[in-house]
Automatic annotation (TrEMBL):
<dbReference type="InterPro" id="IPR052893">
    <property type="entry name" value="TCS_response_regulator"/>
</dbReference>
<feature type="domain" description="Response regulatory">
    <location>
        <begin position="10"/>
        <end position="132"/>
    </location>
</feature>
<dbReference type="GO" id="GO:0000160">
    <property type="term" value="P:phosphorelay signal transduction system"/>
</dbReference>
<dbReference type="InterPro" id="IPR001789">
    <property type="entry name" value="Sig_transdc_resp-reg_receiver"/>
</dbReference>
<keyword id="KW-0597">Phosphoprotein</keyword>
<dbReference type="Pfam" id="PF00072">
    <property type="entry name" value="Response_reg"/>
</dbReference>
<feature type="modified residue" description="4-aspartylphosphate">
    <location>
        <position position="64"/>
    </location>
</feature>
<dbReference type="InterPro" id="IPR011006">
    <property type="entry name" value="CheY-like_superfamily"/>
</dbReference>
<protein>
    <submittedName>
        <fullName>Response regulator</fullName>
    </submittedName>
</protein>
Length: 149
């Protein structure tokens, strides 16, 4: 189904913490966001899901940095190195850290945003609301508008 006929966005969350994945799903549902959410428990599963579902790529990927098997940095680098439509998918990196080196690396590797994982359910809902309100067609990627904390 083409995006023009589908009023919903597809979001893919890749996070090895099952509780964080469940909270993410609950927050999307609680906000009544027009989105279908798919989940992956590690980077390898994320890449497999992207390869398997080529007919309907996600609109956004929320990508945890610290995951087993394949971490978020490696996934981001692989996705951005591809010569296909995946290069256009919006990627929001998720981390509990505000480490400047991690933020800079994500920016250089091609992430669209870096979000510090909120410590509360309401904080997560606020973060998701902010991301959904972004007008991606008019946003200019810059390092001073890269961090959502």
């Amino acid at each position: 189904m083409s995006k023009l006929h589908d009023p919903h966005k597809v979001i893919l969350i890749a996070d090895d913490d099952e509780d964080d994945r469940m909270l993410f799903l609950d927050a999307v549902e609680d906000l009544n966001l027009p989105a279908a959410v798919k989940a992956a428990s590690d980077g390898q599963e994320l890449l497999h899901t992207l390869d398997k579902d080529r007919d309907r790529l996600p609109d956004m990927i929320f990508l945890d940095i610290n995951m087993p098997i394949k971490n978020g940095f490696d996934c981001l680098a692989e996705i951005r190195s591809r010569e296909d439509a995946l290069k256009e998918v919006k990627i929001i990196m998720l981390s509990t850290s505000k480490n400047a080196d991690n933020i800079e690396l994500c920016y250089k590797l091609g992430a669209d945003l870096y979000a510090v994982k909120p410590s509360s359910f309401q904080g997560l809902k606020d973060l998701l609301q902010k991301v959904f309100e972004i007008d991606w067609s008019s946003i200019q990627k810059s390092s001073n508008r890269f961090l959502l904390a």
